[in-house]
Design a protein that fits this description.
The chain is built from seven helices and nine strands, in the order βαββααββααβαβαββ. The chain is α+β, with helices and mostly antiparallel strands. It folds into three domains: 53 residues, no CATH class; 106 residues, GMP Synthetase, Chain A, domain 3; 66 residues, Ribosomal Protein S8, Chain: A, domain 1 (2-Layer Sandwich), CATH 3.30.1370. Strands 1-3-2 form a three-stranded antiparallel beta sheet. Strand 4 and strand 5 form a beta hairpin. It is flat, with a radius of gyration of 21 Å.
């Protein structure tokens, strides 16, 4: 997937794009389209423009499989994850049917794959994800939207429609070509990178405002760090995580 971003300088455009896509520099290919112009006395100034190409994840989530019976020994050795309930199969069938119809009515030619992925916002559990696949770069960008607004809206709508059909509340995620999973993995990397910076400088660092789920991912990523702690500050959409040296709160 590739998208273009603008800024008063090339560096500003790059930083804006990486932040919006949830990528680090080594996870993206950056092409400078225009360095912009300051104009004359501010007149005729133009913004710098860059193109950022997101490198696809090399690994893909595993397809849904119904849980198999295990021996007590194997259960003891297995990782502490929640096995999918049998009732999830009904959610999968209804969710795939509705999402495919919804995408078709929106004018997208895409496939839907139900998978179970590690839930980075919940320790030792997995979540059901309807991953939209087989879309071109333009369709992927349109389905994601600015800061994930479109895919979040689709996710909320699908949850309501499936819950209404099944007469009970169900919870799952909707993703596009692994975008959401990729972003959440990037948040974990960001948490550890900023923690190292805080450890080195001895100064706290506030992150950008994030939704509740993304803040929880940051908290969990650093919960066992011996040198730093995370704190949520602010209200509403401006609520953010701050990473500070542990000595400041002990």
């Amino acid at each position: 997937m590739e998208r273009e971003f603008t800024g008063k300088s090339v560096e500003e455009a790059i930083e804006k794009g990486l932040a919006e896509l949830g990528l680090s520099r080594d996870e993206a290919e950056i092409e400078v389209i225009s360095r912009g112009s300051r104009g004359v006395l501010g007149i005729g100034a133009t913004d710098a423009r860059v193109r950022i190409v997101w490198k696809e994840r090399k690994t893909s989530p595993q397809p849904v499989e119904l849980p198999k019976e295990e021996t007590p020994e194997k259960r003891a050795e297995a990782a502490p994850v929640k096995a999918p309930r049998e009732a999830d199969q009904e959610v999968i069938e209804v969710g795939e049917e509705i999402l495919k119809e919804l995408l078709q009515k929106m004018g997208f030619d895409a496939s839907v794959e139900a998978v179970y992925e590690d839930d980075l916002a919940s320790e030792g559990s997995k979540r059901l994800v309807f991953n939209i696949t087989n879309t071109n770069d333009e369709s992927t960008a349109r389905l994601i939207g600015r800061r994930g607004e479109v895919i979040n809206a689709i996710q909320n709508l699908l949850r309501l429609m499936v819950s209404h059909r099944l007469k009970r509340w169900v919870n799952f995620a909707v993703d596009v070509n692994g975008y959401r999973a990729h972003r959440e993995e990037s948040l974990v990397k960001l948490a550890h990178r900023i923690a190292a910076q805080v450890r080195e400088t001895g100064r706290g660092v506030p992150l950008e405002p994030m939704p509740a789920r993304e803040r929880r991912i940051i908290h969990l990523a650093l919960k066992d760090d011996p040198d730093v702690v995370t704190q949520s500050i602010g209200e509403g959409e401006r609520r953010r995580v701050t990473i500070v040296p542990k000595q400041f709160v002990d």
